[in-house]
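WARN  no MSA supplied for this record, continuing single-sequence
INFO  ligand: adenosine-5'-diphosphate
INFO  echoing inputs
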Amino acid sequence: MRFENVEFTYPGASHPTLNGISFEAHAGQTIGIVGAPGSGKSTLAHLIPRFYDVTAGRILIDGQDIRDVTLQSLRRSVAVVQQDTFLFTTTIENNIAYGDPWAKERKIERAAESAQLHNYIMGLPADYETVVGERGVSLSGGQRQRLSIARSLVLKPAVMVFDDSTAAIDAGTEHRIRSAIRRYAKDRVTLVIAHRLSSLMHADFILFLEDGRIVEQGSHAELLERGGKYRALYDLQTRPADDLEAAE
Ligand SMILES: Nc1ncnc2c1ncn2[C@@H]1O[C@H](COP(=O)(O)OP(=O)(O)O)[C@@H](O)[C@H]1O
Ligand SMILES: [Mg+2]
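INFO  complex generated
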């Protein structure tokens, strides 16, 4: 996947939300995106499945401009795991297989296992046949996020975007999800947008966004070494709690 000098302005807005965004990611790579709220991270992610079209520049997947493929095939190959997930009032199995109603049971189970949801499901009254959603068993925020991850994994997409999708999941569970996903991510580009730097420090490279521009990029080690904005954010997040209190 390749972004070439991408610019994006929301319809009716006076300023571009993204400007001069260029980077390239190969199959098997994970890219981290970090930046303050409003810096354009979600907007960047939403351009990939073409929720919006770029206003200048272009995005290529497998060498093809994404505007030259049908929306249907593009959206089969790009999965965005959102912060919040819609649950249908049906079985948890159907909720996971939402994007691929013909998915085999084994595939659904494997996706749930990777998303660290399988054990929870096995504890439900009718395991995979349990009805969830508004008129069924309700799931917590973290469980809904894991369901959303399982739903995306069933699609085996070429590009998978996690938009702050593990914010409601504890760090240990998140780590298990990431290791499970990595095992079969070798043909895929994975984009991880996260506030918690521990969620993306293992990425092959990290983009630091500020006001819609990439202001720093590199691996976690390179960015720490550089001693810039990423380093400052890292120091802030790893500062011991009593240190923070002393600073108040
Ligand atoms: N649908 C929209 N229409 C107009 N402006 C938007 C829309 N969505 C987001 N924005 C603006 O674009 C900027 C970047 O937002 P966003 O991509 O959501 O940032 P982030 O995900 O980094 O918090 C913000 O200034 C936000 O107000
Ligand atoms: Mg966002």
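The pocket of adenosine-5'-diphosphate (ligand 1) is lined by residues 10, 13, 17, 35, 37-43 (CB under 6 Å).
INFO  checksum written, moving to next record
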